[in-house]
């Protein structure tokens, strides 16, 4: 195992997930969903806590792993989570309840994110977390930056896409899309961004005040 792989493994192994998040992770795997890595969940929770986020949008509910991590960081936060799979959201709702999250703090919207997002209020959210169809990641981020308030942050999971993004020889649509997203946000004067190597990568994009 290379030093880089050892660091990644250590960063994940050192995280202690709650029993409910561990169950959500197992449920995700049984449903064929690839959940975020523990290190990515913990980092997202830190961003939420550090910014004292109150309003969070999540694109891609899954079985609730990322939502539970986001609410771990935001103990007073309201989470709106979008997913096209009702069955997945039903599992997530049960796990939120198990975790002691009151129902009035979580709004689950079942539908295609690209249909739902245009109807949501701009400049209204502290955090937008994206972990959904990678083919649409650039469109999700465009919507996320519209929804985020000035000073708000868009978090994009799987930003390194299985190690393919850093290899310029990988020219499939997903790897190219993430690569374009990362380079364009790095060059933009409207945001500040940073790419974390935790897990499969977490791109953090904070919207600057105009």
The gist of it:
The protein is of the alpha/beta class and about 210 residues long.
Task: Furnish the topology, listing elements before pairings.
Blueprint: H1 3-13, H2 19-31, H3 38-50, E1 55-59, H4 65-73, E2 78-83, H5 86-98, E3 106-110, H6 113-116, E4 125-130, H7 137-147, E5 148-157, H8 173-187, E6 191-196, E7 202-207
Parallel strand pairs: 1-2, 1-4, 2-3, 4-5
Antiparallel strand pairs: 5-7, 6-7
Helix pairs in contact: 2-5, 3-4
Describe this structure in words.
This protein is α/β, with parallel strands linked by helices and about 210 residues long. It has one domain (about 5-205): Rossmann fold. The protein is about 40% helix and about 20% strand. The chain has eight helices and seven strands, in the order H-H-H-E-H-E-H-E-H-E-H-E-H-E-E. It has helices spanning about 5-15, 20-30, 40-50, 65-75, 85-100, 115, 135-145, 175-185; strands at about 55-60, 80-85, 105-110, 125-130, 150-155, 190-195, 200-205. The radius of gyration is 16 Å and the shape is globular. The termini are far apart.
